[in-house]
Amino acid sequence: MRFTFGFTDDPFDKPPCRGCSSYLTEPYVKCAECGPPPFLLCLQCFTRGFEYKKHQSDHTYEIMTSDFPVLDPNWTAQEEMALLEAVMDCGFGNWQDVANQMCTKSKEECEKHYMKHFINNPLFASTLLNLKQAEEAQHNETAIPFHPADDPPRPTFDSLLSRDMAGYMPARADFVEEFDNYAEWDLRDIDFVEDDSDILHALKIAVVDIYHSRLKERQRRKK
């Protein structure tokens, strides 16, 4: 799992998902083999096995999140960056406004943490450097290899892992939304009748053949 400080909490500061073009929210997935520029996917597109040009669904990948401590075990990296941004926006000493902007910490917690780590800390410069270099510290051997499986593990219902699997139904070994989920729509109005012309019959057979190829691709991506 790889961690990054590259973006702020504002989803508009992140590049969009390459699959659905939606704004990315943590956690999201970065391909470890494609780029630059980075190839980023939301969890939904990742679980559907989205592929584009050279990117394949079985590439190694990294989970991008800043939900881990850096300076204080009770403060995540995301909160550290949010605190610095809030102080810049609201001004030093306006701790109530800083707390209101952060939402996750009280006025007293913001003031105490900022004074301890960024004002009264004799290693202030190295503290900021640690924040910026935390990504590099987590970089070695962070890529997660792709492991195909006939039946992925079954996490506890409504657990964090269950939510991160984004639509997988372990009891059915299936997904709520499959790759090419509407492939069957092209067949819904096809009806083979005796008075079909040879050309019309051949066209209907061609549509069925195309549907079979789409089913094969769906199964390949699921594996």
Describe this structure in words.
This protein is α+β, with helices and mostly antiparallel strands and 223 residues long. Among the domains are: 28-64, no CATH class; 69-123, Homeodomain-like (Arc Repressor Mutant, subunit A, Orthogonal Bundle); 183-222, no CATH class. 38% of the residues lie in helices and 8% in strands. It is built from 7 helices and 6 strands. The strands form 2 sheets. Strands 1-4-2-3 form a 4-stranded mixed β-sheet. A hairpin with an 8-residue loop joins strand 2 (28-31) and strand 3. Helix 2 packs across helix 3 and helix 3 (95-102) packs across helix 4 (107-119). The longest helix is centred in the C-terminal third of the chain and has 25 residues, at 198-222. It is elongated. It starts with a strand and ends with a helix. The relative contact order is 0.12.
Keyword list:
Arc Repressor Mutant, subunit A; 7 helices; two-stranded antiparallel sheet; 38% helix; four-stranded mixed beta sheet; alpha+beta; disordered N terminus; 223 residues
Give a short synopsis of this structure.
The protein has 223 residues and is an alpha+beta fold. The protein has helices at residues 43-47, 77-90, 95-102, 107-119, 124-137, 160-164, 198-222, and strands at residues 2-3, 28-31, 40-41, 61-65, 168-169, 174-175. The chain has a 4-stranded mixed beta sheet. Strands 5-6 form a two-stranded antiparallel ribbon.
The CATH superfamily of the domain at 69-123 bears the name Homeodomain-like
Provide the structure class. alpha+beta
Per the CATH scheme, the topology name of the domain at 69-123 is Arc Repressor Mutant, subunit A
For the largest beta-sheet, the strand count, sense and barrel status come to: 4 strands, mixed
Any idea what the shape is? elongated
Amount of beta strand: 5-15%
Share of helical residues: 25-40%
pLDDT < 50 runs, ≥5 residues: 1-9
Written as H for each helix and E for each strand, in order along the chain, the element string is: EEEHEHHHHHEEH
